[in-house]
Amino acid sequence: MVGHPHQSRKSLTEAFPDINIARPHSPAQKSTASSPTKKTSSTAISKMQDLSTTIGKTFASGWPSWRSIRGCHNAPAHFTIRLAEHLREEAAGMVLPEDPATIIAQARQESQRGGVASFEKAWEEMEKSLITLVYGSNLIETAGTNFRLTLKICRDIFRGKEVDPNISERDPEYQEYVDNLIKTQRKGDIPNVIRSRREVINHAKALNFLIDRIVLDNMALSEELLLQAHRILQDNINDDDVAPGQYREHEVAVSYTKPGQKRQRSICIRAKAVPGYMKDMIEHLDNDIAAAEKSEDLDPYTLAARYHHQFVMIHPFGDGNGRMSRMILNVLLLKYAGHLSVIGSDCDKDEYLDIVCRGQKIFSREDMEVDFEKQTSHLEFARHVLRKSKAGLEDMWSWATQRKGGKGISQGSD
Length: 414
Fold this sequence. Notes:
Blueprint: E1 19-22, H1 42-45, H2 51-59, E2 80-81, H3 85-92, H4 100-139, H5 147-158, H6 174-183, H7 190-216, H8 223-233, E3 253-256, E4 264-267, H9 274-295, E5 297-298, H10 300-314, H11 321-336, H12 349-366, H13 379-388, H14 390-401
Parallel strand pairs: 2-5
Antiparallel strand pairs: 1-3, 3-4
Helix pairs in contact: 2-4, 2-7, 3-13, 4-5, 4-7, 4-14, 5-7, 6-7, 7-8, 7-11, 9-10, 10-11, 10-13, 12-13
């Protein structure tokens, strides 16, 4: 468990009310590499960008914005979307206006020629998805607040406005926060109301930060960026055993119980091994992107799913791992597919959890036994990500074809 007993909630990697963190006895160790020590002050990273403005400036160069992270930084990168074999059957069974590759190609073509009208429609749908992502990701952690209040806070954050987490008991919305806390079996007092507001504010700010750096500034995902994002996510949350922006120094295990089933428990990677695993994860991601740039073939769904899954398996922080993993997933998707995959609704929590648990068992068998590029523990989750991308792909097709009455991409397009 994380935090004080009277305020604690379930760990985020485990992501759901049925999952708990416990301290194991003697797990095995992989690496003792040092954690990055560079720190960024909260004031240096607290000012958020207006995403509607910053994304709008990037949009006309092609969306998704494909730029190289190698050699000549920011040079255009050229990709053909090619789904991995394990996703092709999944895609064939989805009811979409076109296949994902055609939809993404149409979006790139239309964004380059459609101007403000195309961006306004694209941003309207993108903002809804970003807000739903924050709400759903918090929901599966029993964090944050209801959708209406989340929407109100997130709109301000994503438009570059500051939001004060403090609220008076005389505020007209105060009781709505209390009611949501009680409904989700949390204590309905002023400290928890403020905490629930912080959980929304911090999550939206951390997501804004990663989009700004990775998607818009074209920075490569790095340990330093992840540590900064975690520092934003946990700012002033004040949980025990959680150092914002630092890897955990204590051991944890994951347990999960479904009604009528025996409790399942698995030990997470040793704390001393976390920095080494994180270093390897970033190196593998850089190598995968470099290979995609060289071959000009890209499967954004497998890429994003692999590194969400790898992060969840490492569980590098004392808390915040579930939300961080879903931000990694969606920032990579936004950068390379141009849309989001929103995970966390009431109806898909158990499915998501079951997939993560099954993947963890495969990861445990393959880790240190199978070469990284041949590992398969993320493949089922990649199929889930593609399924959950249906709404995002439909939204892209809608704005990408609106000026042509829904007609598809022309011959010879990028």
